[in-house]
Amino acid sequence: MGVACFHQFKPILELNVVASLTTNVACNLVLGLLLVFRTNAAYERFCQGRQAWGILTVEIRNLSREIQITILETNEEDISEKTTLLKLLIGFAIATKLHLRQQTITTELDEWLSPQILDQCRQAKNPPLQISLWIRNDLQQITQHQTVTPIEQMIMLNQLNRLIEGLTCCERVLTTPTPPAYVNFLRKLIMVYCFLLPFSLIDQLNWWVGFAVAAIASVLLGVDEIGSQMDSPFGKDSTDLPLDEICGKIVIGVESTISFVSEDQTPIETNTSDFVETALRKHFTPNPTPSPPFNSSKIDFP
After folding, report:
1. Which end of the chain has fewer CB atoms < 10 Å from its terminal CB, N or C?
2. Within 10 A of 239 (CB to CB), how many other CB atoms are there?
3. Mean pLDDT over each residue of the chain, to the nearest integer
4. How far, CA to CA in Å, does 12 sit from each of 6, 17, 204, 238?
């Protein structure tokens, strides 16, 4: 509005030089590219966070399945140990959510973790990493007195390692924001552009130039605000990742795995010597049907 007043009372002043800065193709191109890079970088961080939680969800489902099927139950103690181990996977997911939101351990974990583990998580700087140690320890103790093959142990350990990989990826997204120098420079450039914009629109809009500049500034600053919101995708805002829903789906999946009961939980014992004897008899016993005699007269030579 000040530019409009100045233009009305001092029409002899030439404002074309100032106005040409906002209509210049190079200036507009630079501003547009900076906004595009800002939103692309923020969206890439958002996607990386979602992919990391996808890894956590998949590996928790796979590991819970392997634990439920591979580890056999011979008594009530085995059932209790397996259930405790599966609940640790749920606790890992919820603790990861709280860790990324920089929240303390709440009563949300009381249902899934023992009091001893809860106390250690409250004292630990990285609660999900502490829970992963308990998962590894329980796997080691259970597999020592169970008929678990080395290949099955390797599969479960690889899945546990993938959980740590997903956690580390989330921490990398959380602790590596967009460089502040880049963000500050972009915002300063937007403010300078909006300050010079009335000089190029005053001849066409006159007293309406203030509303036009406000509308354009809201669009440019809105794009920058979108990038700021996507920079931290682990919060509680509506634009952040739905971590509560993701953890809820993980809880449903693990509880479904816990409630699964196989028809036969007894291991299949195979006599190795009988297996070898059967294979040798199959491949080296002569065929009871005699082969027809060889007749060279039936061979056609070229």
Report:
1. C
2. 12
3. 80
4. 10, 14, 16, 52
Handedness of CA 189, 26, 7, 205 (dihedral sign): negative
Q: How far, in Å, CA of 108 to CA of 95, rounded?
A: 9
At residue 240, what is the residue type?
D
Chain center to CA of 289: 64
How many Å apart are CA 124 and CA 104, to the nearest integer?
10
Q: Once rounded to an integer, what is the mean pLDDT over residues 174-200?
A: 85
Residue 187, Ramachandran bin (φ over 0: left; ψ between -120 and 50: alpha; else beta): alpha
Residue 271: the pLDDT is 45
In single-letter form, the type of residue at position 115 comes to: P
Position 93 scores a pLDDT of 96
